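Field reference: sequence -> structure
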Amino acid sequence: MLFSSIPFLYYFLPLVLICYFAAPKKLKNAVLFVFSLIFYAWGEPLYVFLMAASISLAWGFGLLMERAKAQKTKKIFMIISVVISFAFLCYFKYADFFISNFNAATGLSIPLLRVALPVGISFYTFQIASYTIDVYRGTAAAKRNIIDFGTYVVLFPQLIAGPIVRYKDIAQQLESRTHSLEKTAYGIQRFCIGLGKKVLFANTLGELGTVFRESGEQTVLFYWMYAVSFALQIYFDFSGYSDMAIGLGRIFGFTFLENFDFPFISKSVTEFWRRWHMSLGSWFRDYVYIPLGGNRVSKPRWFLNIFVVWFLTGFWHGADWQFIVWGVFYGTLLVIEKLWLLKKLEKLPSVIGHLYVIFVTLIGFTVFNSVNIGGAIADLKGMFGLSGLPFVNEETVYYLKSYALVLIAGAVLSTPVIKNLLRKMNETPLGAKIISFAKPVGFAAVLIIVTGYLVDGSFNPFLYFRF
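Structure field:
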């Protein structure tokens, strides 16, 4: 079930809210747990049992670790739990990748398993693993109530596409949280912002990508339009989902950490990845990079640690070589920056750093969005005029004019320009009055317009569902 869908907005969500706020305090987690399972089962009825098994095993091993007296025993339980969780992920997400590559290397013809990928498994596996590791480290107490623990894992606002929520960040909130009109109002506003990002911008930009792929008259300029539209699409798609998740969480009394911080204003790749998908970056930092030694080791080992993290980051996103290449590409750039480029960029005008980040981001996302490694090479050749294509033609000009407004608006809204303007307006009495009046009208208008788009059956996928 999509957040940006009529069934969710007008049937599922109102029913959840009624049942949740009508339930006594001690049953609120149970209400969220049941409805979250229903939310997941809407699209993945069989894989609910896989999720239930994952929850039960992690919960059980958490209690075993807490009760174990010897540190070695705790470590064994932690390893078993993490291995089981990642075994599920590897089987469903990577089995066919390994089989097909083994066949290619050996000339054998082992049949592919062709198992469907459970939606959200990459996200909830990481959440379960963080819980298990934190309990082992002693930074979080094992949860005795399986319903509360299950609520943490399957909480529907962030179940499908994050942000990746650490157990220790909301452990206290699972036991006791407050609700208020102020939190609810903020949650509704944040949800509407995300909904507008998703439906009005990501979906429209996605249509341009579809037009490009189906066009028989591609040009160099059209390739660059496609690269820009996809970079903006994935930003509005994913940050919009994160906004909706954070907003829904606030309505139910949870405070989730931010996941995006205007990454396109970055002046280096290092800064970009501190601002993009922050929950994933911090997960790899705390559970992979730092345990490997981080930067507290020799330079060669430090750079190896960076490559390991980015190899895994790429592979986490998808079971194909273009994702691995994408990860290694960014790992290489980060190493280059740490060796000498960051110092050079600091001495140059900031606009140079911005242009550098935009350029490498467009290259990176072009690889990321390709169907395979051959498709990535073909797309890059098209962008750099190596495919014998003309630079521009009438069809390219037509679509440039057709989508110019959404491209320009998307570029502006991907920066904090509007946010800063509203903040300055709010500092004056007149501006504050205008904003207080315009906010509810604006959010109501977004909901009405989005509903019209959804009733019309517009293009409406969530990109991160496939990961």
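Note: Residues 71-106 form the longest helix (36 residues).
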